[in-house]
Amino acid sequence: MPLSSTTSLSTHSGCEVSVAEKMPQVLPGIDKEIARKLENIFKKTGIKVTTGCDATTLDLKAYDLVLLCVGRKAQSEGLGLEKLGIVTEKGKIATDKYLKTNIANIYAAGDCTGGVMLAHFAAYQGELAAENIARQDNQRQIGEVAVPSCIFTYPEIAAVGLSEEQAVEKGLKIKVHKFDFLGSGLARIMQEAEGFVKIISDQASQQVLGASIIGPSACELIGILTLAVSSHMTLSQIQETIFAHPTLSESIGNCLKDYNAV
Question: Which CATH superfamily is domain 149-260 in?
Answer without folding.
Answer: FAD/NAD-linked reductase, C-terminal dimerisation domain (3.30.390.30)
